[in-house]
């Protein structure tokens, strides 16, 4: 989930007053959710939202590239980047108009990476040895094209089938029932194990040239932690003051983007001056910017992504079950995003029918992502919720513009090609920081549980350790898992090599079976009955469907009984929102 996880907004909105935490109101916003800023401001803020999400959007295809046998085909990587831009734009517009209707951006999700990489590590899908050698790869040959396309088609099919499960859960209202059993001790290992197994990939990329990787890490940490409260004066145009200068917390909003661009420029300077080795076998060669320089010239100016561009998707049982594990994690994260976003823009708490609709539309977004062939799904981007608080602009129209910007960036082929030329060690440095923060965000959910309880320490420690140990053993001993049914063997192998599933399942099972009080388990602070909004008319205006469409067929009777669980510790901190807990009622 991109660079926004590093931007901890420290504005005075939502600060403590007389020992109480304030909830932002629409009067504190420059523009509320229903307001429409001037067109030029919409464009500027829309582009800013695109840049805020850029780190996460670009990272997903680059992580998948190696297991898709594409590490030596940056041109195809650029096509994947353009495709994820395009689909994210479509899904953002769908979510704003027909989904939760809050100003929240949609983009690729790290939750799908673990099961995707587990599926691609099956013997059937391991890349042939010759694809690992750049000198043997002819990227235009039909043989090579079929090698990577058959892998991404398999991912497409798995994502499309799993997305149907998410649509069912959302549109039927089952999400409320499921959330009753999911607490901090399930979420903490699940989220942490999204990133922990990726240490190998991050270390390998950074190890291409540790000097460049460390420089990238240093810059990102400098901007996100040390300079985050430094305001940079920028010229702006306002309704009252017209042309004047205003302070922008530039380093707080774009720490990863700035660090990435400066390191990229450093690599360019070192390449031009021949400070980096020119021999392909030498250490640090892949830090040069000219190793992929021909991509920009090869990439078309305009390329329109379309469904089935890599061929007809294929489906395997193993892939589907693995991606479903990612879907569950993604849904839990998104619910937290909805609540955080509503408070940031001064909107009433989202009603159940809007949450059901939002999860259902995210499932539809995953279906579209699978059809277009991003190799991933889509989910709500919490870093953009943080950007809402920084800009104090909660207008829905700004996110509509951001969705249009994503669509345009997906059509301009040169844009995706430019990001595919980022040197490998720069990407490795970025990964080390991003994955570290995602891991910590997962662990932060434990703030709600009693950490003096041996019960809770056992559940978390055991879940995390098994989530690392079991996938490691299965990867080394795949031949031990033989039931005599090939499809069942593949399902078991994918699930047991997905650390997120192993840790999350054990956390879920143990937390719901080992005796413990609600307070001890953290459920008093976790399971919160949705407070009825006093602003009924505004809630209807904010969350009602546009163009007079009724919401009856989006509301399910089975979604009205159970209380929705809110995971505030995870995404509230990701969004840079340290608001504390809202009013908690008894269980």
Structure in a nutshell:
This protein is mainly alpha-helical and 587 residues long.
Uncertain residue ranges: 1-24, 529-535, 553-587
Strand content: under 5%
Helix percentage range: 55-70%
Beta strand count: 6
Main beta-sheet annotation: 2 strands, antiparallel
Mean pLDDT: 79
Tally of DSSP helical segments: 24
Return the string of H and E elements.
Answer: EEHHEHHHHHHEEHHHHHEHHHHHHHHHHH
Gap between N and C termini: 32 Å
Structure, described:
The structure is a single chain. The protein is mainly alpha-helical. The protein contains 24 helices and six strands. It has helices at 39-65, 74-98, 113-120, 142-172, 174-179, 184-195, 199-206, 210-226, 250-253, 255-272, 294-298, 317-344, 352-372, 382-391, 396-411, 413-420, 424-443, 454-476, 486-496, 499-513, 518-521, 523-526, 536-543, 568-574; strands at 16-17, 20-21, 106-107, 232-238, 242-248, 379-380. The strands form three sheets. It has a two-stranded antiparallel ribbon. Strands 3-6 form a two-stranded antiparallel sheet. α3 packs antiparallel against α12 and α4 (142-172) crosses α12. The chain crosses the membrane at residues 38-65, 77-98, 158-187, 207-227, 248-272, 310-328, 398-420, 426-445, 457-474, 494-514.
């Amino acid at each position: 989930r991109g660079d926004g996880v590093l931007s901890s907004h420290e504005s005075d909105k939502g600060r403590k007053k007389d020992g109480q935490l304030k909830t932002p109101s629409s009067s504190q916003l420059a523009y509320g959710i229903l307001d429409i800023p001037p067109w030029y401001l919409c464009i500027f803020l829309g582009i800013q939202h695109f840049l805020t999400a850029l780190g996460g959007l670009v990272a997903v295809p680059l992580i998948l590239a190696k297991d898709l046998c594409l590490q030596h085909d940056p041109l195809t990587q650029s096509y994947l980047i353009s495709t994820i831009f395009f689909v994210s734009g479509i899904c953002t517009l769908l979510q704003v108009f027909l989904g939760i209707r809050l100003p929240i951006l949609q983009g690729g999700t790290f939750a799908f990476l673990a099961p995707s990489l587990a599926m691609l590590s099956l013997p059937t899908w391991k890349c042939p040895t010759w694809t690992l050698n750049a000198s043997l790869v002819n990227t235009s040959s039909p043989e090579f094209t079929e090698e990577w396309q058959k892998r991404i088609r398999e991912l497409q099919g798995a994502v499309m089938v799993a997305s149907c499960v998410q649509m069912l859960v959302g549109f039927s209202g089952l999400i409320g029932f499921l959330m009753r059993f999911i607490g901090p001790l399930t979420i903490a290992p699940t989220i942490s194990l999204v990133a922990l197994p990726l240490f190998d990939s991050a270390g390998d990329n950074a190890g291409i040239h540790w000097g460049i990787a460390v420089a990238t890490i240093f810059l990102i940490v400098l901007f996100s932690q040390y300079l985050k409260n430094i305001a940079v004066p920028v010229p702006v145009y306002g309704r009252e003051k017209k042309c004047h200068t205003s302070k922008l917390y530039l380093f707080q909003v774009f720490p990863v983007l700035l660090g990435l661009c400066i390191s990229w420029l450093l690599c360019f300077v070192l390449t031009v001056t021949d400070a980096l080795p020119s021999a392909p076998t030498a250490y640090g060669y892949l830090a040069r910017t000219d190793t992929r320089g021909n991509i920009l010239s090869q990439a078309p100016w305009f390329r329109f992504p379309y469904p089935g561009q890599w061929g007809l998707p294929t489906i395997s049982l193993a892939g589907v079950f693995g991606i479903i594990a990612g879907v569950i994690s993604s849904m839990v994260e998104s619910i937290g995003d909805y609540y955080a976003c509503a408070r940031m823009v001064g909107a009433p708490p989202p009603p159940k029918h809007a949450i059901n609709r939002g999860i259902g539309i995210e499932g539809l977004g995953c279906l579209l992502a699978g059809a277009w062939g991003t190799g991933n799904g889509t989910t709500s981007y919490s870093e953009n919720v943080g950007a809402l608080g920084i800009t104090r602009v909660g207008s829905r129209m700004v996110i509509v513009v951001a969705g249009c910007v994503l669509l345009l960036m997906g059509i301009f082929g040169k844009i995706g090609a430019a990001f595919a030329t980022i040197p490998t060690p720069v990407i490795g440095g970025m990964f080390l920081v991003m994955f570290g923060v995602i891991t910590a965000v997962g662990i932060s959910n434990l703030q709600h549980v009693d950490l003096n309880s041996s019960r809770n320490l056992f559940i978390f420690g055991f879940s995390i350790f098994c989530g690392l140990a079991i996938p490691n053993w299965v990867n080394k001993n795949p031949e031990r898992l033989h039931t005599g049914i090939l499809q069942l063997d593949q399902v078991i192998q994918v699930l047991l090599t997905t650390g997120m599933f192993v840790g999350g399942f054990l956390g879920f099972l143990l937390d719901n079976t080992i005796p413990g009080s609600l307070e001890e388990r953290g459920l008093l602070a976790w399971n919160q009955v949705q407070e009825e909004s006093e602003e009924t008319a505004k809630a209807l205006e904010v969350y009602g469907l546009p163009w007079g469409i009724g919401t009856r067929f989006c509301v399910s009777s089975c979604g009205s009984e159970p209380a929705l669980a809110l995971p505030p510790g995870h995404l509230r901190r990701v969004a840079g929102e340290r608001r504390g807990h809202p009013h908690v009622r008894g269980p």
